[in-house]
Structure formats: C-alpha cells, structure tokens
Amino acid sequence: MTSAPRPTPDLDPAEQLGRYRAVRSQTEALAAPLGPEDQVVQSMPDVSPTKWHRAHVTWFFETFLLPELPRYKVFDEAFGYLYNSYYESVGERHPRDKRGLVSRPTVDAIADYRAHVDEAMVDLIGQRHDLWPLVELGLHHEQQHQELLLMDIKHVFSSTMLKPAYQLRPFEPSPLATPLTWSRFGGGITDIGAPGPVPASHAAPAADRAAYTFAFDNELPRHQALVPPFRLANRAVTAGEWLEFMADGGYRTVSLWLSEGWAAVQNNGWDAPLYWERHDDGWMLHTLQGLRPIDPAEPVVHISYFEADAFAAWAGARLPTEFEWEHAATASGPHPAVSGSAVNDAASHAFHPQAAVPHRLEARGRVGDVAQLFGDVWEWTSSAYAPYPGFRAAPGAVGEYNGKFMVNQMVLRGGCCVTPTGHVRPSYRNFFPAPSRWQFAGLRLAADR
C-alpha cells in the first residue's frame, strides 16, 4: 500500500507463490513451539493471543483478496467479526481487550482456516498476476504480526509464575561492549522516505529490479528535509549503562523526565525496564529463553519513549530525530533492504539483542562508523509519528492501515532481534505510544554538532 501507484518488478507466478508460501510457513514455524494453552492467553489489552495473530493475518487475505476469486466460499462468516483488527469500514469487530476470551474456534480450527485460505490463494495468485501489490502488502502485514507474535508471547510467559522459555538457549555473558564513541554527520538537505519506483518490466535492468523494495504508505512520499549537523553514538545504549542510570537515581530524579513520563513512573511504579526483576544476588531479566542474569554489555531493551528521553537527558545528550537517523543510515549510499548474517534479526534465532563487541562491530548492522543501526533493538527517535508532506491515505478499507494512527505516537527506526529478515529498511517507520514498553525498543544517543 502506498500513497501513489508504486510499480513493482514483475514476478512470475512461481516466484509470487514461493514468496507467499515462505511467509505463511514462517508464521506456523514461530507458533510451533507453543501448545494450544499458550496460544489463547491475553496477558494485557495490547497483547493478542498467538491464535488470534494466526487467524487475523489469514482474515486479511480472505477479506481483501479472495473476493476476487470466482466461487470462493468463505470459511466461516463469524471469523469476519472475530478477526478484524481495526478496519471500521469492513464492519464490526470483537473488542481488542477481550481477544483472550475467545476459546473457540480452537487452535486446530485456525489451522484448518489457514489451510482453506492458502489453497484458495494459490489459485488466485496463479490467475491474477495484477493483484500482486495487494498480496505483497498482505505478506508484509503478516511479517509485522510475526514480530508481534514473539513480542506478545514473551509478555504472556513473563506473566506466569513459571516464566517458561519460548526456546532453550544457553546464556553466555558477552565480553565488554565497545566504548561509546561519536560519529559526526555534516547534515544539509537530505532525501527522506522510500526510494522511488523502478520499472515494472522483466526487461528492466537487473540492478533496477534488485533495488526495488516494498514500502508502506507512511514511508512516502519521498521528500527533502533539512538536517543540521549532528553527532550520533556508534552503538545502542547498553544494560550496563542503564544500571548506572538507575544507581544514580534516574527513576527518582524528576528533572530528567517529561511531565507525562514522570506521571507514568509514579503511576506504574517503574524503577527498571520491563522484564527486569530484582533478586537477592542482583537483577534478572526475563527473555524468550527464560529468566537469566542481566548482561551489562548487551543493548538495554523494553523501555518506553519516556525512559529513553530521560536517559538521554541524564547522559547530557538527546534522542535523534527520525530524519537524522535515516540520514545516518544512508550516509554510505542507498540501502533499499537490509538482511543477512551480519544483522541480528529474527533469522539469527537469538530473539534477543546482542552486545556490540568489537568483532561484531565490523559487520552487524553497520553503516560507516555507526553499528547496530539495523536489528537488535528498535531505536526511539524524538520525532512524532506524522504524515510526510503530500501524504494521502489510499482509498477504501486498506487506507486505514497507517494514516489514522498518525497522532499521539512516536517513531522508532531500525528493526530488532525479532523482526523478520528482509523486513528492515532505512525508511521503515515503526510507531508506538510513548508509554509502551513490551516492544523490543532501546535507544541510541545523539547530540548537536
């Protein structure tokens, strides 16, 4: 979905079908370690049960694409109500904060639903090549929910007495993180947003086809912004540095906090990031691998915008704007898509941020002298989530995807350790309300030149 027509490189039906099956099977692979009991729990209103995620992304294809398939039979009319998320123009929906009460349909029934829709989508992809842009949107939407699935089950497991592990992985403390240093950026007029479209023909040069990357509408239109000279830290803030902030009274010093942030600290009793627990022998952290000690070298994660802003004030710095962040991420040239073994995203199967130790800084998520820009943790910026100049939501129900949320949210950049591989790009704009902490969010410091 884009603000304007965005041609995509031609893919033959076999390539389209391969992409469809790869994304759909990855969702099932992520759910595979979970029992039926795990998949129905909703531990807070922002969390959705795993079963719901699996059904909702399937509902998207059934609702927005399969009406184009002649003689398609809807799997179950009730699913339109149960698994609509927020599309008002599609119809009424089950309350978000009560998704955990839907014990039926069962997990097995959702598997049948997915199989039913997949069979029909195979037919549709074979018949309607012209629908690929909407299919591609549905696949990127499903990848977003793959990340949410892991975020949500982590919160579910942390809320139980047993604090089970999603996956078993031995804990090995990291070497000391590389010292924090600063990179200088000259600023100036810079291009912001997703690159422009490329020719949609098989005859297009291979380099042009390879340069194409999908973009959501909130990454468009590409435009110019004035970025004054600035400095950016070479890595994300670590858990060890966060411990220093806590020891220095960071959660008790009102002058560091925005007014709403201080109210959140007082009302919620915050004294550490989400999933940190104080034990007799020190702080422990709940991860997708279960409960284990804090690793001071790894990036701090699961902090709100308010906490990130307070830490930056304590450190005598600030958060970068989203334009500074994107300028830094593209300073060495265009990077239409980011993936590979050097990026700690979901493909690494670590499902937790990794320390920026010297040998990792040589490659992982690096642009110039700045590392960890991609993967590990989403990085809070100081930018409010707002439309770019010239933005227009697409007509119809699909236009509800991003535009209507452009208020009371802050932008995060860069992806994280549970973001699907290939889903990260410099122009990607994630967004959450300032108090949110259950997403894999950390921070990077910035300063004026």
Short description:
With 449 residues, this protein is of the alpha+beta class. The chain is 30% helix and 11% strand.
Q: Which residues sit in consecutive blocks of at least 5 with pLDDT less than 50?
A: 1-7, 198-210
- The radius of gyration computed from the alpha-carbon positions, rounded to a whole number of angstroms, is 22 Å
Order of helices and strands: HHHHHEEHEEHHEEEHHHEEEEE
CATH fold-type name of the largest domain: paralog of FGE (formylglycine-generating enzyme)
How many domains make up the 3D coordinates? Answer: 2
Tell me, briefly, the overall form. globular
Main sheet strand line-up:
10-9-8-11
Would you write up a description of this structure?
This protein has two domains: 13-158, Four Helix Bundle (Hemerythrin (Met), subunit A) (Up-down Bundle), CATH 1.20.120; 182-448, paralog of FGE (formylglycine-generating enzyme) (Alpha-Beta Complex). 30% of the residues lie in helices and 11% in strands. It contains eleven helices and twelve strands. The strands form four sheets. The protein has a four-stranded mixed sheet with strand order 10-9-8-11. It has a three-stranded antiparallel sheet with strand order 1-4-12, covered by helices on one side. Residues 1-7 and 198-210 have low confidence and may be disordered.
